[in-house]
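Reply to dn_fold:

You asked what the input looked like. This is it:
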Amino acid sequence: MEDISTSNVAPFLLRFNSLCTCGSAFRVVGRGKGRKESALLSLKLLLVLPFFLCSFSPLLLAQSADRELRGVWMATVLNIDYPQNPTVNASTLQADFKSQLYRLRQAGLNTIFVQVRPAGDAIYPSQYAPWSEWLTGVQGKAPVSGFDPLAYMIKTAHAQGVELHAWVNPYRVAMTLDSLNFAPDHLYHQHPDWIRSYAGRRYLDPGLPEVRTHLGEVIDELVANYDLDGVHFDDYFYPYPKAGVPFPDEETFRRYGGSQRLSDWRRGNVNTFVAETQRRIKAAKPWVQFGISPFGVWRNLAQDPVMGSATRASVSSYDDLYGDALAWARAGTVDYLLPQLYWSMEYAPAGYRTLANWWAANTPKNIALYAGHAAYKVGNNDDEAWNTLEELPRQVEYNHQLPALKGSVYFSTKSILLNPAGLAERMADVYPTPALLPVRIAPQEVRTMKVKVYKPKKTAKGMLVVWDVDKTVPKSELPHYFAIYRASKSTPMTLLHRTPYGQGCHRLHYYDAAADPVVKYDYKVVALDRWHRVLNMRFAR
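and this is what came back:
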């Protein structure tokens, strides 16, 4: 038994059973037939990697091939994804989420962006919004028995080693103008002067300072009350324009616009709100990520011959939604950008390849970059490229050729799990092994951690590996989770699994049920923090 440095291993993965001796068991299962051949092929191709990694720095290793964000948006508005049917029944809501989570993990995903504020309402108890009609069927009606869906989702996802980010639609108030059955505590009744009707929907006016203050309180409540991994905004800032119909904020502009142009003032309102959101989050919990998924075209080349992309999109985020993603990234007011690149690879007006290259070239290196993919188009679009299951795998493969792109997120859950052509199974082939999340920038140095790994033992349940964390480490400072690797004479050091997040235990163990009892294995236990940084490694034989 000995320490090994981060420069001596090449991580990849299998499956096992893990247990915190002061907590409950967590069982990891395989992701179905047809994966073994892909995994073996990957391992054979990577047999030589350990010999080249010895000169790599710990950070380079940490961002190696087993590091990738693989996410999905779970929409609650209009019951697109969750819940499948509104209900006040806590057991039904729990079962619905648990089932979707299990199947998403089977498809290889490790992060969920849950829409917690769809339209001025919430899927969690809030003093700033009523319960969502899409959760329980009636706006303002709570689930029975004091059930908190968001708290349950976070606990359940973390127990499976999956991150959960709260997806907030800040400005949308109502999906239609016909809906007038608002709960008494909805903004429609509380602050009608904040609301503007436009293109058949209702929105908060982003130019009002009191709107920004209110939304800041919404963010504060979320971050304070829940163990979130992130807060997420999508592309909806100012609404998508309707031809010939201006957004009705003339009075607000006269009051607050000063000498600015209307377009610059609107972008400034959004920029200010984004910066304030980042400040609030980091002041409360520095590890909570904040990012935005803007519309995939920042500006067309015709609109900006210097910085624009070689696209011909009918709208652009900068000019029509007043979302200046490059300004946020350059100012450091987001942790990541997740542009919605919802077109096929070679789509002439706005191709995925063109836009992936543009975002990779223009996103500052200190801002994480992920790509948003249109899973909803597979088998359901006029572009013939989407009539096959291979368009998304081609996009993911292309991402892997761009070092700046650190992962993918798919819209949406239903589009993956219920696709009749078998998209979930195809994605499991794309992701035959799990992945750790990319390392994030943290405000402090890594704290080293002593971990003792005992000699593995053969048992009826599989190979048993036990490890201890230094007993002097306070519970609040323990590693957020562990990654376990395995090697033999014929296979490289391979990532087996990531343990549940936040167990808070000094002693843990796992059963490697997939181990061949006649093969001698070496195991490695890696401690990681909430920024997914390696704290140390221990080796056991």
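The mean pLDDT is 89.
Hope that clears it up.
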